[in-house]
Write a structure and sequence with these properties.
Blueprint: E1 4-5, H1 21-32, E2 37-38, H2 42-45, H3 50-67, H4 82-96, E3 101-105, H5 110-117, E4 123-128, H6 131-136, E5 143-147, H7 154-167, E6 176-181, E7 191-196
Parallel strand pairs: 1-2, 3-4, 3-6, 4-5
Antiparallel strand pairs: 6-7
Helix pairs in contact: 1-3
Length: 201
């Protein structure tokens, strides 16, 4: 289940322009423990410095994420859930191959939740054909969701997704990506692929 850490993260900044050291530590610990979301409430609704609060939280989270090494020890993890095993394998491959991203195709968001559960260091880009599901998937850690038209030709769908990510500068030529999908109308089995991004992909 996605976890949001909220309430009083930057409480002192309701009236002060700078956070306390304790507040900075709380936010840093939330990021280190890989919570899905950290949230402000009173700080931005009735506080005197709403913009500074957002900037401070972003600065702390970005710096901690760039410095901390919090890889999960995958080895020894056992599961009887086939989809969970598949997503675990995707995350291991992404880490070992130094992939730039994990691309997920999902109608319901369930496959995406299993990928996000592993807390990979790679960016996760999820594609769905349902706008309501796309909005729900924003909450998961490290996830950027997109709405895309699912096609019967899986190769064409992957190409369109990669082109979109290249357009927004998330990927570039030579990057490796791990692709995972459970969209049944396309194929009758779940898919896990490793690809390199070139001019036509």
């Amino acid at each position: 289940k996605p976890v949001i850490i909220a309430t009083q993260l930057l409480e002192s900044m309701i009236i002060n322009p700078r956070p306390t050291r304790a507040e900075v530590t709380d936010i840093a610990n939330a990021v280190i423990q890989k919570a899905d979301c950290i949230m402000l409430s009173a700080e931005t609704t009735k506080g005197h410095y709403p913009i500074r609060c957002v900037q401070a939280m972003n600065r702390i989270a970005t710096r901690v994420e760039s410095k901390s090494d919090t890889n999960i020890p995958y080895y020894g993890i056992k599961t009887r859930n086939i989809k969970e095993a598949l997503t675990l394998t995707a995350c291991i491959n992404a880490e070992k191959l130094d992939a730039k991203a994990i691309i997920v195709f999902s109608k319901t968001g369930k496959l995406l939740s299993l990928v996000a559960k592993q807390r990979p260091d790679q960016n996760i880009f999820v594609f769905t054909d349902n706008e309501k599901i796309r909005k729900r998937m924003v909450i998961f850690r490290g996830v950027t969701p997109f709405k895309i038209e699912f096609k019967k030709n899986f190769e064409s769908m992957v190409t369109n997704a990669v082109k979109m990510l290249k357009k927004y500068k998330f990927l570039s030529k030579g990057d490796r990506v791990v692709v995972i999908s459970d969209v049944k109308p396309l194929r009758k089995v779940d898919i896990l692929e490793i690809r390199e991004v070139w001019e036509n992909l």
